[in-house]
Structures are given as C-alpha cells and as structure tokens.
Design brief:
The complex is a heterodimer.
Chain A lengths: L3 E8 L8 E9 L4 E8 L3 E7 L2 E9 L4 E8 L7 E6 L12 E11 L4 E4 L5 E3 L4 E4 L7 E8 L2 E9 L4 E5 L4 E5 L2 H12 L2 H13 L6 H14 L4 H11 L4 H11 L9 H9 L7 H15 L5 H16 L7 E3 L20 E6 L2 E3 L15 H6 L7 E12 L4 E4 L3 H7 L4 E7 L2 E7 L8 E8 L7 E2 L1 E3 L2 E7 L8 E10 L20 H15 L4 H14 L8 H22 L29 H14 L4 H25 L10 H7 L5 H24 L12 H22 L22 H11 L4 H8 L4 H20 L7
Parallel strand pairs in A: 1-7
Antiparallel strand pairs in A: 1-4, 2-3, 2-5, 5-6, 8-9, 8-12, 8-17, 10-11, 11-14, 12-13, 13-16, 14-15, 17-18, 19-20, 19-27, 20-21, 21-22, 22-26, 23-24, 23-27, 25-26
Helix pairs in contact in A: 1-2, 1-3, 2-3, 3-4, 3-5, 4-5, 5-6, 7-8, 11-12, 11-13, 12-13, 15-17, 15-18, 15-19, 16-18, 17-18, 19-20, 19-21, 20-21
Chain B lengths: L2 E3 L8 E8 L3 H4 L5 H8 L7 H13 L10 E9 L5 E3 L5 E3 L5 H15 L6 E7 L2 E3 L3 E4 L14 E3 H8 L6 E7 L34 E5 L16 H13 L1 E4 L2 E5 H15 L10 E5 L5 E4 L5 E9 L3 H4 L1 E7 L14 E5 L1 E8 L9 E7 L4 E6 L4
Parallel strand pairs in B: 2-3, 2-6, 6-10, 10-11, 16-21
Antiparallel strand pairs in B: 1-3, 4-5, 7-8, 8-9, 11-14, 12-13, 13-15, 16-18, 17-19, 19-20
Helix pairs in contact in B: 6-7
Classes of the chains: A alpha+beta, B alpha/beta.
Amino acid sequence: MTAGSIVVSGRDPSSARGDVIGVFEVVDLQLRVVAAKPLVNGGRTRIGSLDAGGYFTRATFLTNRRLSVPVEVPAGGGEPVAVVLEDSTAAAGLGTPSGDGWVAGWIFDRAARSWTPAGAGSVRRRSGTTIVMTADAPSANVLLQWAVGPQPAMFTVVRADAPVRVVSDASLAVLDLASGPARALFTFLHAGDLPAAGALAMEALSQSTGPDPAAAVAVGYYLLRRGDDRLGSWAAELTRLQPGSFDAHLLYGLALMRDKTRWPGSRGQRLTATRLGLPMFSHGLRLLDDALRLLLHGTTDEELTAARLHYVPYLRACLNRPLTTFWGGRPSEPALMPARTPEPVQARPLRLEGLTPTLPAAPTRKSTGKTKPLSKMTLVPEKHRRITFGPYSVPLTPATRTSATLALPAELAEALDTPLRGAAERTGQELMVIIGNVASGADDVDIEASVWLENAGQPVVMERRGSAMLAALPYSGSVLPAVLHLRGSYLIRSATTVPRPEPATVVTASGSPQAAALAREAERLVEVGLGWEDAQARLTEIAQEWPPAAPGEAATDRALWRRFVAAREEFQRRHRPAVVIEAKPRTRPRGGSSADGGPATFATVRGAELHLRDLLTEVEFRGPTWHVVSTAASAYCVATVVAWLRAGHVPRPCHLDRPALARLEGRWYPSHARRVAEEVAKSAIAYFRDRRLAWGLWRVEAGTTLVTELLDGCVLALPPALRSAAARSQYQPTRREEAWPAVEADGTDPISRSAAVLRGAGYTRAEVAEVLGLAGAAAVTRAVARHRRQKERSRSDGGAADV
Amino acid sequence: MTAIVVDDGPGARVHAFVVGVGNYPYCDDPPRTGTASRILGDLGSVTSPPPSAAAVAGWLAGMPRGDGDIPVGTVEVLISSPTVASVQRDDGEWVPVSPATFANFRDAFSRWLDRCDSDPGNIALFYFCGHGWHRDGQLLLLEDLGKQRRRLLESCVELSEIRTVMQHCRARTQLYFVDACRQVPPELLDLRSGVAPLVDSCGPVPLPLAPLDAPVYFSAARGFEAHADQDAVTPFTAALLRTLDGLGANREGSRWAVTTEYLGPHLREVIAWENPDVDRNSCLSVEGEQCGPSLIRTLDGPPLVPFRLTCDPDHALAAADVSIHQLPADQDPPVAFPAGGQGEIAAGVYHLELAFPDGAEFRKASLFDEVRPPNKAWHAAVERA
C-alpha cells in the first residue's frame, strides 16, 4: 500500500509568520500518537509514511488552547492532505501598557561580581516588535530593566544579542524571547508540559543545523528535566559555545552531578555559573538552589553557602514567568513588590504602542538648563542627604593563605567617584578589613560603614583613618572566609555645589534638545566600553537621526554637530586597527591541489576554499575526503598550539582565567605541550565540523579563511584544555626530555617570541603574519630580529637560557 | 501513629505519607504584639485540609490496581482538625488518625522514609494540604505553628529538606503534591529562627546522583495562594484524585496508563475544566526533576472523559436530538447522550450527530472526533435551514 502524508499548517493572527505557536500530534484511530512536531505560524510541516485511514491532528497552543481536527488519508498516496490548525483565541496586546517609559541595560561585571550599567547604545530596536541588547561577551546573560506607563520597573534576564519582545496577559506585560523555538520550549517547560516540550526539543535535536543559542539553552533544560543521557554532552558543548552563559554552566554542573566519572567537577561548574550573573530560565534559580542545598547537606562549605545566600533574594522575588523576571530599581536589590523607582543612568527612552516598542533618541528627562555628564547627574546625592548602600556580599579573592583582596561593588566606587580598594588580612583571632581610597580628594566624603561575616556575630563599625577605613572582625577560622558583608551610608558635601568640570562646548538645552541628546550620547559611546560594532552602528544611526536646525539655532546646532563629529573621530581613532592584515598563508589549497586531488578549476585562494567547502558539504563531512582534510587541519592546529604554548602567548583574543594563564606561562615539556595541543586540535576540528560547517557558518564569501576558522576553534578550546592541564598537577615528562623554560624568565615580548617560535617550527613568514596578525612578511622578519636582540640583551643581563 | 497497612508483602510497593492540617490553635489566638502577631494573625484554622487529606488517604487505601502495577503498601496519615479525624479503609472500617504536630510529623516521616528505602522499585508519595509559605523554599505549616512564639519556624517543615533527605532513599520514583499557599509574608524574612531538622544529618549526598523521577506538583505558583472551599475537598486535591483515577491517563501501546509524564499537563487541564474562573498559569506549578516517565497505575479500560457540547447558536442544542456512536460503528450500541450537553464518556473515537425535526429552524449537523483524557469540548456550528 502506498503511504500517504499530511501537511499541517499553523495559524495565529497575533503572531509573526514563522513563530512557533505550539505543538501538534498526529494520532491514529486507536488514539496512539504517530508523530509530534512544532506548530509554526504559516509554516507547513509534512508528516509522511502514513497508512491510509483516519487520523486526528491535535494542537496544543502556547495559549493553553487545544484543538483537534480529523483528517482522512486516502488510499493510494497522492497529494498530501492539508490541515490548518488555527488559534483564534490568541489576543494580541491584551492589557499591554502603552505610553512612554524607559529601558536600560545592565551587564554583569565578573571581577566585581555585580551588575553594572551598560552603555545606552547597547539597547537597540532590532525589528518591528523586537529589541536587543548587545554586550562584549555575546553569550553572557544581561539584564534588561524597563518601565512603561503605569507599570513599574522590572528586570528580565535575557541572553545578549537575543532579540526580545513585549508580551502580555491580562495581568502583566513582560519581556519574552523573540526566538520561536526557545520561547515555546521555555513556556512549555515552565508549565510542566513535558510532552509538548519534548516535541520541540526532539525537533531541535534532529536538525543538522542545530538550534539558535537561546533554543540550545532551552533544549538543555529539557534534557535535564527529563534526565536524558544526552544532557552531559549537550551541556559540555553549550559551555564551549557559550562560555559566558550562566545557564550553560549551571546545566553542565547539574549534568556532572549525575556523571559517573566526572562528578567531582560539578561543584566547580556551579560556582563558575554563579560568577556569571543570573540564569535566563527562571527555573534555573530553583535548580541552582536545589543543587546547592543538596551539596551543602551534611557539609559546611563556605563558598557554596555564600553562593546560595547571594541567590536567595532573587529566588524570593522571581515572578511566575518563563524568563527570570523581578521587580526592582537596582539589580542587586530584587523587590518582592512592584514600586516606582527612578530610572538608572543609562536608561534610554522607550515608547510602547500596543506591542511595538520604539526607542526615540530624544531624552525623556527634562533639562534644567546646562547639561551635565549623565553619570554625575544621577549618581551624586542631593544636597546634604545621606545615601545608604548595601548590604553587599563582598567576595574575598585570596592572595596568600592569610590575605585576600575584596571585590568591592563597582556601583559604590562609581557613586563615590573614587577607585576603591579593599583587602583583608587574617591575624591571630581577627580578620582585619581595610578599604582604601574612600575619598579621592576632590570631594569631601563623609562615609560610615559596617562589616560582618556570615553567622559570626554582629556588624563591626569601620573606623575612618584618613582616606581609609579599618575594622577588626573576630575570626577564628583556619582559612579565609569566602565572603563578608558590607553596608553603610555616605554623604558627599561638595558634590552638589561643585559639579564636575563641564565640557567646553556645553550648550543650553533650550537650543536643540534632540541634537544635544544625540551629541551627549555620542560622547558617552566613546566613554563607555561598548562593543565596537554596536557603537559604530549607533554612531551611524545618530548621524542619520540628526535633526534639522531650528530657526535661529544654527550656531548652536553647528556647535553640537562639531561635538558629535569630535566624538566620532575620537571613537574611530581609538578603534582604528593597529596593523592591516594582508598576508595570505601558503598553507591554503592552491590551484591544482584540491582536497580530492581533482583537477583545479579555481585560481584564487578564496575559490579554492569555496570549492573545499562545497566538497565537504557534499560528502557530509565524512569519508576519505573529510579524513584527508581533518588530518591536515589537525596537524596544523597541533603545530600552532604547541607554538603558542612554547611561546607562552596566545596571539588572538582568548579568555584565559587565572589557572589557565598560569599554566600557559608555566614550564612545558614537549610531550605535555603536544598532549594539550592534540586535545585542543581535536576540539577545534569538531567545532569546525559540527558548529561551522554543518551549520553553514563558514562564510568564505565574507573573507573568512580556513585558517581563521581553525584558529578560532583552537582559541575556544584552549582555556579548558589549559585548566585540565593545570588540574593534572604532576608536570613530570612521560619520557626523558628537557622542559622549555617558563616564559616569565624570558624577558622578551610575546609577539616577537611567538614569531620566532613559529618560524623555528617551519612556518613561512606569511603564515606567521596571519597567525599573529602582523602586517606582512616584512613585519615578521622585524619581529624575529627584535626577538633575537631582546634575547641577546637578556643574556647579557644574566637572564634565562634561550627558548 | 496512624499507618494504614494495605499490602505489606515483599517487593516494591507504593508508600504514601498524607498530611492535612486544618487546625491551627496558636494562630487562632495569636499574640497581641510583635512579629509573631503580624505573621500568625493572617492565618487561622481552615476547614478544607482535613477532608482533602482524608480523601487522598481513602483513595490510596482503596486504589484500584491493574495487572503489573505496583501495589499500595502503606499509607501514613496525619490530620489535624478540631476533633479527632478518621480515615475510611478499603474494608469500610474507620481508623482514627493522629494530629499533624511537628513531633508526629517527624516520627511519621522517619517511618515512611524507612519503608520507602526498603526497595528501589518503591514509589514514595507525599501529600500535604494546609497553610504554607514560600521563603526561599516551600514551608509546610503544622498544627503547633506558633507554640514557640519566639521561634516560629521551629514548627514548620521545609519541603526542600524532605526532598534532600529523600535523595538518600532507594525509592527512585517519588511524587510530591503540595496543596498550600506559596506567598512570602514580608515579616517572614525578618525571622532568625530556622526550621528544626527532621532527621540527624545523614551525611553528604553521595555523588554521582542516581536517576530520580521526583516531580513536585504545587497547587499554586510561587507567590500565589492556593484555593479552597469551606468544609470541602480543595479544587487541587479533587482534580488530583480525578487525574490519578484516570484523567491523567495516556494511551501507552495497548493500554491506558497514568504516568508522571502526562500527570502535570492533564492535572492543569482538569483543574481548569472544573474551575473555569481559575488562572491557568498560577493554578499549578510543576517543579523537581523527572527522569521518567514512571508508571503510577494502569487502567482496566478506556477512562471516562468529561465532555461538553455547545452549539452556535446556543439554543440549537435544546432543539437537537443528539446521538453519539463510538467508532468502529459496530463496536457498541449508541451512547445515551445526557441532557444539558455534558457528561462523561469512555475515551475513543465518536461520531456525533445533531438531528432536528422536519421543518425545524436548523439543518442536521455531525461531528467526527476523538475523545481523550483529560476532557473534550465539542462545538457544533449549526446551519439554519
């Protein structure tokens, strides 16, 4: 009998075309589920291989509505039977607040372990109904704070670069992901509807291109919830692809708790997660708390205790929404109840009409005359009013066994306008706490503060001595505590009367408010450490948005325009690349030397790589062709990474934490270096195949070379490999061999050293130039010569032996 | 001590621990001042937990079991009510039960834990109905709440502690049902006392964790209150029993089975079906981990599914002669259609026909549709003649 098929289409007038609006099942007349798939608005999903007979297509919409439609598959196959499942009850914008408000972005400062304001240009409108927040670490979770109309300020944790939109029900408007699969998965998981979530997750897992980053996180939560064996590998991959993601590390930590061999790493993964802010999925908070309680049961682990205490306020305040959402004016103070709060310094105006947000450039705050830098406008206290701060949980970073530095909150340092420094020293039965630089000298800061340890007595008032504050806490522990608590108040007497020096080109707001706001925004884009692409894009937008000069305001407008141009030039001066990479390495395929050994049909490197990519796609990244390419690529990666290790320097942006950096700069035996390099190469090749080639992300047309792809993979894989190497604390060689000296003793600059090492390893000058980002073969020659001179100088000064 | 022994034979069993707290004497007479006054003053005795817990215990004691199902072993029951509560066993005998004080709870919990720990195939079932708070975890408030007015939390049980201790238990299927409010009184955050431990420390939880199917079903989302009617079984508990009874079933091969996979979504549907005004998003919260699906019970045949028929226009239903046939057509005689357009019908595929007398306002209409748990809503658009 010929099999028939059904084509199912979803329809929801309130959703965008292509959105996932639910799931559907096909059940036979015995009510057995034959297939379960996502239901896409306007999409067409074909269910094939159906025997002739009656079926039902049953939809479960995100709105909780269910719908069942009978369908008859005719005998003899033929055209597929079309079914439309429509959610006619979905109402767009029900209860959505409309009007003016503001939106602000916050990014998590890992060093200070606190949320800091993001640049105003980091929050942008992406498309008709979505906004997006960008951050330097694209995989990190960020906080979007917004308030519109009568609805007070609320925070929502989203992934940087993930578009979000406003959704609402009868009670509340909240931000939700715009990604259809991620939004649907989180919604079903939040509701506890595992069968529906399963249909979405299975679809995502079966796709060769893989889900988008937010959906990948959601799939991880589904696998965790189901206790699926695939969680371990999925979460490990997530941490590699999204190293800044709280959710990824949390999932991996929870997966490791169930792993028979790697479970000792679960504690570290969870602590890594707690250093990355907050989870995107609200259940992540509960899962984290459950896991921390579990690990703390029957033990006294101060670090885990401190981590848990940090998250308890968020757990209490978290609203019943899929994304982590809570009320409040400050990220560090989640509120149980909604309350009106002042807008933060980095807020951008937001206008919401229905479900469509716009981000007008004109400021919503009323100007009072001369403009002042925004950072000073909102952070200085009102005249003679004492401002309270804290309580903060201040982490201690041990420097020695008895001393540690304090990671004081960045917002406090910003408020006091001084670079605060803190330290703690264990002496006998006391812990001496010192906070320095509490006054920078320009302002008269009257500050009072108390510190205390968890479960260890009453707060101790700090004593002011000059620009420092001291306190001695009773403490009998054998190791330094992980965290101490700080709170207090301050008064800046002169700040309100003596504002910061204002820019020379200050203009009055009466001239051209919109232009003034745009000029100020451009200046702030230069000040804040925003991602280059976003800042550049915003500067272009500002130039396009510049309003025409009002009658009689031409001079003011010219002054404002000059300010904007100056800011733009300053930005471009700062971000101009130091060198121009124009070298093309000879390692790439050339005409007549393609991977399959076939005849050359291309004359350029780009043509060769296009051909190689098509060839690999054709063979689906396997078989003899893939073997040849992967072997060559692996050898290239191993040689490169060995050179990096030998040089003690990675000549590309690479997020190395302290253990990884220490290991990189340590002493290497060739066998160990090769072992690490082989690990890195293996991961890099897998990354290239599974996440770049398979997803169609190797964009040769855009100038991305094979070398770049491989080096990116190596850079991603190097930090965990170094950490693993550091954990293997025995650095004894596997055979009799000489160690390369540690790089600290070298005394040469890393670029020159890397150039010399790579040349010594047999790389051509052009290849070295590409790897190191130098401006050409001549630059490599100069770098090697410089290295030689430095070595000679080092020897004559009694330095270390040659590398 | 009240443990109803249903089947104490060897092998895996369902061991249940059912707690209902309706009597809160110290909340009915709170102190006049202080934090305890503000916290306890908002609470008081309630009437719905005793009948709710008794219904659950009674259902468990007489739960029908299919072939291959794990039999019910014991049901540990604590109920606090103004008078001594009792539970009816399967043989019709009424058994008086102990009040849900903290001391009784602690003892009963230890016994339940020991029983559950006896076999890895056991199913541990925990049910609580009474007042609750949600601080950083769910607090279950027992009868002697407020007895120690300076240490209010000492008479509370933290659900997280139960779940953590149960990680040590060999039973790999654990079901938790909590029918209690989940709000956070602001004053609660000022309290410095902690909950008293249920057991001595049993040491760190051994890693790696073994797979555990342990969903937690709350009758309210975090920050919301649970609903209850005076002197009646709560809507959540009533829906829970109906779901366990068959509305949580799904077709698993050739049989109908209630598993942990469909329990959550079907329970939400049953609550919403029977309480149309309830907020579907806050009437149920499913947490915990699910490494299932675990089989709770199988049914002898298709479950009875509640259905509702509406027409457009409304008054067409009154004029219609409704007949309903299960398919295949020769399988069963026509099902008698109840007056009012709603009733219960066995899960299956049906052909439903609305006929009108000659010369009537409407034309004949028919529907062909499936009926599956947890419910079925039919809507027939009838054309005018």
